[in-house]
Design goal:
Blueprint: H1 3-20, H2 22-41, E1 49-51, E2 54-56, H3 67-83, E3 85-89, E4 96-100, H4 106-122, H5 163-168, E5 178-182, H6 185-198, H7 204-207, E6 214-218, E7 221-226, H8 233-250, H9 255-270, H10 292-300, H11 309-314, H12 323-340, H13 344-359, E8 360-362, E9 368-370, H14 378-389, H15 393-403
Parallel strand pairs: 1-3, 4-5, 5-7
Antiparallel strand pairs: 1-2, 3-4, 6-7, 8-9
Helix pairs in contact: 3-6, 4-8, 8-9, 9-12, 10-12, 10-15, 13-14
Length: about 400
Amino acid sequence: MNHRPHRTRVKTAVAERNKSSLPYVLLLIFLALLSGQAQAQGYGKGGEVHWERKRWTHDELPATLPSPVRDAVSDWGPWAEEHGYGLLLDETRQVFLAVEKRDRTAAKQLKVIDKTLELIEELALAKESTSSPTTFGSKSGSPAERSTLAPDEEQGSAESEGARWGRALGFDKHRVPVIALVHDHETLNSVLRHWMALRPELDWQQDVWKNHVSFISEEPLFAVIVTRDEWDLDHETTALLTRLMLKRTYGPLPRWIEAGITWQVETRLYKSVWHFFHRESQFVPSSSHSGWERELRSMLRRRQDCVGLFTEAAELNTKEWRDRDAYLAWGMTGFAMEELEGRLPQFLHKLRELQNEGARIEQPDGSWIYDISFVPSSADQFSALADLLDDDLEERALKVFKRGLKRTGEPR
């Protein structure tokens, strides 16, 4: 008998509370709908450029933005508008992130870009050159032979087209790279088709191939990541941005240098490695991502002869993965970066000069071609480094490796 009135009072009280709060409930529903609509809109209209809470359509950028920023938007704004992507400019105005307008991961990836740029600046990896860029071109003005600039550095030879090739080979240090985060291979193909339209001298069937995860280009300077296939998006964003900044400043570098520096940046930020260049979408054992410092020490601890150590590192083949070669390239670049300190850009610029000198091939008619597949010999690379660190660098490097690197790749 006592239970029944109690239930009635409870029901009455609930009914009265709901009635009194009805306007507030409606208001909350309305705000939720607005919030959902805002989330659906994400980064606004396709093709919009975002920087410091400001928005512009891609064809209405203010003149106050630097010309390299406007050049990058001119290249990629039409594609972004067509496919519903926004172009997010990092706070330092050095990099664009192209994201689908409903993408909710973009804010995090902008932070990844910021911390990667901070480390790149700290390590002086993209320090400006004091020398004037070389202008590449055919004296005869004849049509260019097709070049091969495929993903992850599958390169052939090409005849240059005036200053365009100087820019393509990394001699415009002011370029603003674009990193596109796409969700599927259909969109990836749209990116590559757009890239082909920007590079009409290339042939789609012969000059373009892609792996299942990422694609990188020197001209225009951009990279694209298929996010649904990527094992660790932070690592891949960091690795591709590092490579883009190296290409922008120095052009083509020896494979072991580009790979080793990229892996050094990864380990210093994350203490592990995920970017495997030509690994495509093959399964990578989790044991391969970390512990490089232990593997390198174990591999070399009984070695007595240091002769040839540099050559072994320089012979890294990024197409045929071997753990041993990767550990050695990573360790050698860590050693060199530590020993060179502020002179690292000097070494990298010297490598660029060697590349320029060896790649230019004079033709009988007075014109010349530029072989972008050319790589300075390991002996020339050693000499460039020995000029800065002395000829006993291999002996010192072996001692460092036996003592053991830190997990970040820095010598102890």
